[in-house]
TrEMBL record:
Domain ABC transporter: 1-224
Assigned keywords, A-Z: ATP-binding, Nucleotide-binding, Transport
Spans through the membrane: none
Lineage per the UniProt record: Bacteria, Bacillati, Actinomycetota, Actinomycetes, Kitasatosporales
Span of the signal peptide: none
Family: Belongs to the ABC transporter superfamily.
Keyword Isomerase recorded: no
Protein name per its UniProtKB record: ABC transporter domain-containing protein
Source species: Streptomyces pharetrae CZA14
SUPFAM superfamilies: P-loop containing nucleoside triphosphate hydrolases
Database matches in SMART domains: AAA
CDD domains on file: ABC_NikE_OppD_transporters
Recorded superkingdom: Bacteria
InterPro entries for this protein: AAA+_ATPase (IPR003593), ABC_transp_ATP-bind (IPR050319), ABC_transporter-like_ATP-bd (IPR003439), ABC_transporter-like_CS (IPR017871), Oligopep_ABC_C (IPR013563), P-loop_NTPase (IPR027417)
Amino acid sequence: MERVDLEVGYGETLALVGESGAGKSTTLLEVMALAAPRHGRIEVLGRDVSALSRAEARRMRAVVQYVPQDPMSSLDPRLPVGDIVAEPLLVQRWPADRVAARVAEVLGLVGLRPRDASAYPHRFSGGQRQRIALARALAVEPELLLLDEPVSALDVSVRAGILDLLRRLREDPGPACLFVSHDLGAVRHIADRVAVLHSGRVVETGGVREVFERPGHPYTRALLAAVPVPDPAAVAVPTESSVPRGGPLAVGEGAAGCRFRTCCPAFTRLEGGQRVRCEREVPGVPDISVGRGRWIACHFPAGLVERR
Ligand code: SF4
């Protein structure tokens, strides 16, 4: 990752969207690792992770929980569900008398029955396994929940149930959530804010509704136009020809100016003077501010500010 500037507050869900290879999962894994990234800085709960002692990192890991795309990868097939959910509690040395009660509580929270605690993972459907993975992550009352494509492997009816569950957890109020998805319908359903990634960089962030209804960066517009619109009545997405292919210029290669100009669908339609600006000035992040918490890494964000 070259540059990702993101913040997610307590009780808030921030979605990372973009095509495969945009850097979404890498970002999540870097946060989960609680290790200094190759570039930039990661702060979790107000602490720079590169400055954490071993003991501090261990304590931090207890409050940062990860739910993978494939729930089976996090569920030990040799253990009954109750033991799987209890495991992180035991690692954190919860008193034995509280563990059983907490396991029953979180199983109920995700819509499973108390008797499911004695069954093994292979007895459950894909959606139920995702509920078990969520119960395990929620058991320790995390402050930051990392969700990696939590519904992508599920069929439509099961997906709706999991999205409703995630939405309810958010209303509790729940932990801060960083949610990676290429499913814009899911993002619209559960996220408060969205960050659009392209080639390892954030190109636009803002409230989900603002970004989906008035995308400013050419890449965001192309991305939204290229996927099925989840709610056509509510979203009028301007069209772009296609999602831009190829990546931005590498560091040092045409270093001046906007590095996206070689794959920007809007660049060729700009007037001469505007193109010169794209070629000479790096669109600073977040120098084009169009509202609180909203920014676009482009000199000419469509329809939001007067072209300069
Ligand atoms: S600054 Fe110019 S080249 Fe870069 S994304 Fe915006 S319009 Fe395209």
